[in-house]
Predict the 3D structure of the following.
Amino acid sequence: MAEKMKKISNHVINCNAGPARVPYDVLRKAQEELIYYENTGISVMEMSHRSPEFDNIIRTAEKLLREIMTIPDNYRVLFVHGGGTAQFASIPLNLCPEYKGCKVNYAITGTWSEKAAKEAEKYCHVCRVTPKLDKFTSIPDVDTWKIDPDGKYLFYTDNETIAGVEYQYQVKPFSDTMPVAIDMTSNFLSRPIDVSNYGVIIAGTQKNAGIAGLAIVIVRDDLLGKPMSICPTILDYTILNKMNSLYNTPPCYPIYMTRIYLQWIKDQGGLEVMGDRSDQRARLIYDTVDQSNGFYYNGVNPNCRSRMNAVFRIGGQKGDEQLEKQFIQECKERKIIGVKGHRLVGGIRVSMFNAMPVEDAKFISDFMIEFMELNRK
Amino acid sequence: MAEKMKKISNHVINCNAGPARVPYDVLRKAQEELIYYENTGISVMEMSHRSPEFDNIIRTAEKLLREIMTIPDNYRVLFVHGGGTAQFASIPLNLCPEYKGCKVNYAITGTWSEKAAKEAEKYCHVCRVTPKLDKFTSIPDVDTWKIDPDGKYLFYTDNETIAGVEYQYQVKPFSDTMPVAIDMTSNFLSRPIDVSNYGVIIAGTQKNAGIAGLAIVIVRDDLLGKPMSICPTILDYTILNKMNSLYNTPPCYPIYMTRIYLQWIKDQGGLEVMGDRSDQRARLIYDTVDQSNGFYYNGVNPNCRSRMNAVFRIGGQKGDEQLEKQFIQECKERKIIGVKGHRLVGGIRVSMFNAMPVEDAKFISDFMIEFMELNRK
């Protein structure tokens, strides 16, 4: 057993919750052409955003995304500065024409959806459609949501990284006039979805599709053209769409990284394969938790456990902080990093995005079993 | 002469107006440690923004900037998403507490300052202090500016990249209660300045200090704490300052690139050296223009010619488009790229930021002389 416990990964197993692991092949390609991009003699970092070379990069990124996600023609794809937090303002500023004159619906299932709602309150009357929860361990049934029928849209966060809660279905639009706006920052491109279910999809790219500093917006074209008058240009979908995401200098290098990452996803087999792998990774960790007789504890309702962020305590429901500290330390010794839980909930969090091979989740689950066998009281 | 005309640069001379050339040594370092940063076993792109390693990167960037610019202690340094365009909204949203309740002063000396004023009009009453100009070829004397004494601030753009106009002095604050807000996006870190002259300095990093997707804000601390209620969190200096630029995931890789770039500036000798080089580069080009007997034409008042962007026509004041096309083509053959003038003004634009060695400006000026000798009618 002592021998077995010394097993060290042959590479760092990066479980950071975001910015997160990037596939080695993607990093390798970026490194190879960092100084000289193709036959240009310059770096992508030094290129004009209006050059034919950069145009090819951003248009290829869009083309790949449309192909991978099967995005219908009546949806626009925008590459924008910032991440989810910027989009929390963008959504109300673009979907509500009148300052403080519109109602909007928010389903609160964790820290991120609550942050989104708070930001929207600067501009709209926010209706929180879900009951106030003490802990974010389940998703209240959609049938019980108190949706204001006059709301301009219905917003929800597909995956909550802190509590580890994820919708395992697509919430349908309440009516023809109330589109669904969804934050997919933390589970973007991790399984096939029906884009046409949504009015707006937002996603920072730093978890499943690239690096920090870029967000992707997929918006149905009939929702454009009516921004609030106070919407800053940088957040204005209508202007960004009109200028093909090149109104101002975009975050060029993050766009380039996403372009390579998207090619990698396509080459791996697309969203079916990403979905299969995420299921396998999640099963490895949650099965270990469930078969631990309470040594590992995850309080999330199994019907909404996150495939991206497995959050658990060690040594029982409340967690044994000493044991958790030891676990994190022993992970580190085995080159498993980034497993410390978010400060709001404590414990352990294993984040497993597109770039993590299933074998690495297996390595972690094997270690969890060994750790349990040695430390169970 | 034909022999001389065939002289080809041994590398691409990148005159892009932004994103722009990055020093080779900076790119080389980024390439070397792209996959594995120091002894972490992961890339900077994969690091948590809350990790000690990234904290060291962003704090070192700040420390270097404070040292290079001699930033007084009562100024805060923020690393923010977006670029100048985002900051055009941020400035009024942070310096004016009341929506549509404040007056602000803008000096209009080109396309960028006009864009900044237009954005501010969403939130404030904008007073354009300069007379309406037909062409942006001079900077109206500050004594003639019609500044509204109740204005919350006085804004100007230090360098206008399209017309090639640059202030060669620092505009002093109008009064103790009206700070100067300055956009230094296109001449940031290109010469020593007295930071204490300004209330707010904004600069996108993609020209003189890094790559696209990041802006730096230097703000006097007494100006914090009074944002407009409608200010999106992502643009809120007070929140960003409170969280040391880590309220949300920042553009980590662009921050890392700026950190290396700043080290390069320091190693080269700091802003005195950057200033000397920019003067030398500019002199090489403008002297060639001035000694061309009208073959090259730059209409900007010599007291405000941009050191960063030399804008000129070929074949007389109105420009001979055929000759300009030929010039651009022959530049390309000599590996001089990015010299086509902005579509709003036409002609030629030679952009020369921190990363361009003086020898490259000499190479361009030599070519300009040879081109003139062969093509003068």
